[in-house]
Amino acid sequence: xxxxxxxxxxxxxxxxxxxxxxxxxxxxxxxxxxxxxxxxxxxxxxxxxxxxxxxxxxxxxxxxxxxxxxxxxxxxxxxxxxxxxxxxxxxxxxxxxxxxxxxxxxxxxxxxxxxxxxxxxxxxxxxxxxxxxxxxxxxxxxxxxxxxxxxxxxxxxxxxxxxxxxxxxxxxxxxxxxxxxxxxxxxxxxxxxxxxxxxxxxxxxxxxxxxxxxxxxxxxxxxxxxxxxxxxxxxxxxxxxxxxxxxxxxxxxxxxxxxxxxxxxxxxxxxxxxxxxxxxxxxxxxxxxxxxxxxxxxxxxxxxxxxxxxxxxxxxx
Length: 317
Prior knowledge:
about 25% strand; six-stranded parallel sheet; alpha/beta; single chain; globular
């Protein structure tokens, strides 16, 4: 089968499409023929092995895991002997390492669910941002009436956080660039700040929670914009770990770091929200698998809106 592989850490050019062995499902797994996957910031970190701590998980000198990719949407092609809830031909989506490939094996009780009717494979590739956004909101204890600011509201995590927070009943202020103001407002943001023309830290407004959805802001810059006892929810940058420890014991305003992993119930919740029309997939660009280097360069430009999708085996069905 075709897959995107890399044998060393480095720039996007280390990625290439090659033939690799097709996986075989274990008794409790299904074999999914992948029709769509995504390029995410996590893929960037893993390919670069930056920060260096990634190498302790992936391999010090070279990557042990040659195939990147986390999200998939496709069709069940083969069942393991113990599978009882899924059937051959089911359209499914979810999360599985190694999804930049034509086939991937997924545990039936893993991060997988049937796709809602009427959803394209591309639109179903939004699990990662949704799960991370949900985790950030839960870490920040966001609920009805919470005054929340989402910094970086037009990315994969940001567009998810805006929608989920609005659905929870929070008052959402979104920060993004000028070209995405109307999009983010249409996702449920009550107020939108264009960071190219306004600095939210200088407008005198305060919030219960500031969620940094892109890892490009900081607690120190946001501190004055938090109410007493307010929370700064970090989603990236290693220096936030010691800050989370220090602010836990000193000062009323705290840094909290979302470290919870993806969960099966998140995928099921996303399916329910998509089915009910309460969650809108945001897709920026799609590329065929063979253009993975170009897709990766675009993700690294920090200009993407929502998700960047790679397509395989026919698209849009």
